[in-house]
Write a structure and sequence with these properties.
Blueprint (H helix, E strand, L loop, with lengths): L2 H15 L2 H17 L3 H4 L1 H9 L1 H5 L9 H12 L2 H4 L1 H9 L2 H26 L1 E3 L5 E3 L1 H4 L9 H32 L4 H17 L1 H30 L4 H12 L12 H18 L5 H6 L7 H30 L9 H12 L2 H33 L4 H17 L3 H43 L1
Antiparallel strand pairs: 1-2
Helix pairs in contact: 1-21, 2-9, 2-21, 4-17, 6-13, 6-17, 6-19, 8-15, 9-14, 9-15, 9-17, 9-21, 11-12, 11-19, 11-20, 11-21, 12-20, 13-17, 13-18, 13-19, 14-17, 17-18, 18-19, 19-20
Length: 452
């Protein structure tokens, strides 16, 4: 089988997995959970920011190998803001049209119920590690459902692959290409520097990974919002028209292959949902892994805090980019990758637009790699019983070297396949545990009403 044939096979498999059955399943689960949890993402949306910004949450000292809820928020946000946002939204727009932006916005509200559930389960159902530390995440709570003897290992293995590919090799590929364009550095020198930089971080253990991520995330988020809001402001007369276009395209029907529902609508849904999930990590379970190491005593509060990460990544980044593409006219570009993003920024910044996007790509990529280093470390630790962590660090660093030096186009298509495997197993476990989560949410509501 040739490289092209393998790429086409993986692409077709991803297209099959992300067809109507999975789309309807994810939508159905998000609607069911929204109802079961009393619309918690709507009722406590503002409270999520209040909990997050409490001084004791932000300033608490993390115990060795534990992280605070605020650090969990920062790192979950960093993991969801990689080049899957900058390039992935362009792919969604190119493949699904402006209607994909509508579905990213609309479904984003309901997907937040899944994020709440996975973080709640990760902090409510934990296991004790060596030294009395606690660990949570899908590989822990999946052990409580039928198939629990093998399902946690299935999840942990695929999640580890996700950290090596999506969270590392692909991000480093974008970083290396950006640096090569902006500097006179040789690609091999760039790869070597990235390898050594990551090695320094990895050998410092979990706490060094967390501290570096804490420093990078606010910078990359701030830079993105300043640049993006400036572009939107200079195109202010087109903003309302862009919203109208996105809404109209979301419900466009086009008979194709005898389909009962329009192919255009399916494309908008499929790419809007798939790229939004790839960018925000909702349903994949990675945020649960991060929050699962906080050692918190309030799973509902952790779940509510996690809603803030989804609102930033889905509405503040993904939807904002889609709105930007339509308002600037970049959505009609012949390109379905980060070049569409560059064209949108160039409408305001001219030739400097490419520099801004490349800087953003590098910042998003670096932050994402570091956050995924922590997630992968937890998966590796689960699979090996906490052994051979140095070898994990070495493999992770070599994956960065690999990503910087080789063509990773085939890996883009593989992402959909891996994400589908993780989402299917994770949603199965969450639906099984939903009655227990629902019981905890109801108890929280009763307590909250009495307190207020």
């Amino acid at each position: 089988m040739t490289y092209v044939e393998l790429d086409e096979l993986i692409k077709n498999l991803g297209g099959f997995l992300w067809g109507w059955p999975l789309i309807i399943s994810i939508m159905g689960v998000s609607f069911i959970m929204t109802f079961a949890f009393g619309g918690i993402q709507f009722r406590y949306f503002m409270r999520s920011w209040q909990y997050l910004l409490k001084a004791e949450s932000a300033q608490a000292e993390a115990r060795e190998n534990y992280i605070t809820p605020f650090q969990a928020f920062i790192n979950a946000l960093s993991a969801s803001l990689g080049n899957g946002s900058l390039a992935g939204m362009a792919t969604a727009m190119y493949s699904g049209g402006p209607g994909a932006g509508f579905w990213i916005f609309f479904l984003g509200f309901f997907l937040m119920a899944i994020r709440f559930a996975e973080v709640y389960a990760s902090t409510a159902f934990t296991e004790k590690q060596a030294g009395g530390l606690m660990r949570g995440g899908p590989m822990v709570y999946l052990a409580r459902v039928p198939g629990g003897s093998w399902l946690p290992y299935f999840y942990a293995f695929f999640c580890l692959m996700l950290t090596f590919v999506t969270g590392n090799a692909m991000q480093c590929n974008s970083i290396a290409l950006g640096l090569e364009k902006m500097t006179a550095w040789n690609i091999y020198a760039i790869a070597a520097v990235m390898f050594l930089f990551l090695l320094y971080i990895m050998v410092g253990g979990a706490q060094r990974i967390i501290k570096v991520s804490d420093a990078i995330t606010p910078i990359k988020v701030g830079l993105f919002f300043v640049a993006t809001l400036l572009v939107l402001f200079t195109n202010i007369n087109s903003l309302w028209g862009a919203l109208v276009i996105m809404t109209q395209h979301a419900f466009t029907l086009h008979a194709a292959r005898g389909a009962l529902i329009g192919y255009t609508m399916q494309s908008a849904l499929r790419f809007g949902l798939a790229r939004s999930i790839n960018a925000t990590e909702v349903g994949v379970g990675t945020s649960g892994i991060i929050f699962g190491t906080t050692g918190t005593s309030s799973p509902v509060r952790s779940g509510i805090i996690s809603l803030a990460t989804t609102s930033i990544s889905n509405f503040g980044v993904c939807f904002l980019l889609m709105w930007l593409f339509v308002a600037t006219g970049a959505w009609q570009s012949e390109f379905g990758d980060i070049r569409m993003t560059i064209q949108a920024y160039e409408t305001t910044f001219g030739s400097f637009g490419g520099w801004i996007v490349n800087i953003l790509a590098m910042m998003f990529g670096i932050g994402c790699v570091i956050a995924y280093a922590y997630i992968g470390r937890q998966c590796w630790s689960f699979l090996t019983g906490g052994k051979y962590l140095f070898w994990y660090s070495l493999i992770f660093c070599f994956m960065a070297l690999f990503g910087a030096l080789v063509e990773v186009r085939i890996l883009w298509n593989a992402i959909d396949v891996v994400n589908a495997a993780l989402i299917i197993s994770n949603l199965y476990g969450l639906m099984w545990l939903m009655p227990e989560i629902q019981k905890g949410v109801r108890a929280f509501y009763v307590h909250d009403r009495k307190r207020n």
